[in-house]
């Protein structure tokens, strides 16, 4: 019995010691947060809703209420100016809309991507996009990959892809013709998701998915991974919540599927090239050829190739389908703009089935329409950089060691940059109109700007030109024009349209 009391006494002392230690650690952490507040509180910003959590709980409530968090960022930008601060635990983030600072930071390789990009190296323990072009923080590692990838996205090389863009867009036209013949409504976002994924699979990797006809687990896998990213951003403890275990299993399975599929494509292509077989002159072939000239290729470099296959697969599909869907939505709401862009397509394309590369350069007003679409609806809504040294932004002193967020949604909708910003007006991008600098950059800026920009613009023009050439479409009444944030921005309604053949 005495031994039992001794054990109880020792356990109680140990628990007391542990409680004291945890209390001291907590107090120390609170002091550190107080130090962070004192260091950065001279930067303007909204009042914190919590000492510990900062603005996190406020933002979480916005997200959980199904509101768009970028709208809140826009409201705060209008209230607090071109640079303001947000807190979350001991982290501090800047939202920057100052054109001068945007130019200085994004146009320089000095400012590295911040730690957010580490979060999507893995998803719940499974390697996802790893150290690919979008996520690589180390400049030398990024530059090595970019040097390998650049030839695959040259304008000369992209010219050769026009046939693929036409072919896949024709499959969409066949699907829309069925909807017109059968008088059925078309969910444009779903159809465009299928066709843009088909395009990137075929043009980049020589794979025929044909998702408008066939079923595949790949779209669901992509959607699960994007949803996982958003959950991790919104809820840092998401992985440790027992109710999320089933979803986490699905995401791990999705990551494995995407990487296994990419590895099969790479290996199959390498084998064909080694055997001297004819292979498609696509992006995958170019990547493998260029990588083979590097004498210092390592096993990790092979993993990086796979990282970039997954990166292109996701980034090349989701953002373009969103842009096209928003474009159709706005044209459906503005018949006068629809008529003007349709006339241009008729004048340039006429009755031709195949659109040439030279035709794309003549579709000037369509280019303006797509630019205006991305101003109001930047499907990739932002990027971020790490500021390690002190600097001054628009007269505000910024101590180093802080993450800086550039929100494309916010800059595109600020009155001080764009008059009547919610008005859909493609003519604001006319070459003769004076435009603000470093305020509209939906593909980012500088050395880390989107490598696939020209690819995406060509694809979007081909799809839209064929749609305008062949069909009349109108928005089905009663649907919402709200925006959904799934990692990229997309129309919440799906853009449901009635389709008719043009007379």
From TrEMBL:
<keyword id="KW-0770">Synapse</keyword>
<keyword id="KW-1133">Transmembrane helix</keyword>
<keyword id="KW-0408">Iron</keyword>
<keyword id="KW-0492">Microsome</keyword>
<keyword id="KW-0256">Endoplasmic reticulum</keyword>
<feature type="transmembrane region" description="Helical">
    <location>
        <begin position="6"/>
        <end position="32"/>
    </location>
</feature>
<dbReference type="InterPro" id="IPR036396">
    <property type="entry name" value="Cyt_P450_sf"/>
</dbReference>
<dbReference type="GO" id="GO:0033781">
    <property type="term" value="F:cholesterol 24-hydroxylase activity"/>
</dbReference>
<comment type="pathway">
    <text>Lipid metabolism; C21-steroid hormone metabolism.</text>
</comment>
<dbReference type="InterPro" id="IPR002401">
    <property type="entry name" value="Cyt_P450_E_grp-I"/>
</dbReference>
<feature type="binding site" description="axial binding residue">
    <location>
        <position position="450"/>
    </location>
    <ligand>
        <name>heme</name>
    </ligand>
</feature>
<dbReference type="InterPro" id="IPR017972">
    <property type="entry name" value="Cyt_P450_CS"/>
</dbReference>
<keyword id="KW-0472">Membrane</keyword>
<keyword id="KW-0812">Transmembrane</keyword>
<keyword id="KW-0753">Steroid metabolism</keyword>
<keyword id="KW-1207">Sterol metabolism</keyword>
<dbReference type="InterPro" id="IPR001128">
    <property type="entry name" value="Cyt_P450"/>
</dbReference>
<comment type="pathway">
    <text>Steroid metabolism; cholesterol degradation.</text>
</comment>
<keyword id="KW-0443">Lipid metabolism</keyword>
<dbReference type="InterPro" id="IPR039983">
    <property type="entry name" value="CYP46A1"/>
</dbReference>
<comment type="similarity">
    <text>Belongs to the cytochrome P450 family.</text>
</comment>
<dbReference type="GO" id="GO:0005789">
    <property type="term" value="C:endoplasmic reticulum membrane"/>
</dbReference>
<dbReference type="GO" id="GO:0030425">
    <property type="term" value="C:dendrite"/>
</dbReference>
<keyword id="KW-0560">Oxidoreductase</keyword>
<dbReference type="GO" id="GO:0006707">
    <property type="term" value="P:cholesterol catabolic process"/>
</dbReference>
<protein>
    <recommendedName>
        <fullName>Cholesterol 24-hydroxylase</fullName>
        <ecNumber>1.14.14.25</ecNumber>
    </recommendedName>
</protein>
<dbReference type="GO" id="GO:0098794">
    <property type="term" value="C:postsynapse"/>
</dbReference>
<dbReference type="GO" id="GO:0098793">
    <property type="term" value="C:presynapse"/>
</dbReference>
<keyword id="KW-0479">Metal-binding</keyword>
<keyword id="KW-0966">Cell projection</keyword>
<dbReference type="GO" id="GO:0005506">
    <property type="term" value="F:iron ion binding"/>
</dbReference>
<keyword id="KW-0503">Monooxygenase</keyword>
<keyword id="KW-0153">Cholesterol metabolism</keyword>
<comment type="function">
    <text>P450 monooxygenase that plays a major role in cholesterol homeostasis in the brain. By promoting constant cholesterol elimination in neurons, may activate the mevalonate pathway and coordinate the synthesis of new cholesterol and nonsterol isoprenoids involved in synaptic activity and learning.</text>
</comment>
<dbReference type="Pfam" id="PF00067">
    <property type="entry name" value="p450"/>
</dbReference>
<keyword id="KW-0349">Heme</keyword>
<dbReference type="GO" id="GO:0020037">
    <property type="term" value="F:heme binding"/>
</dbReference>
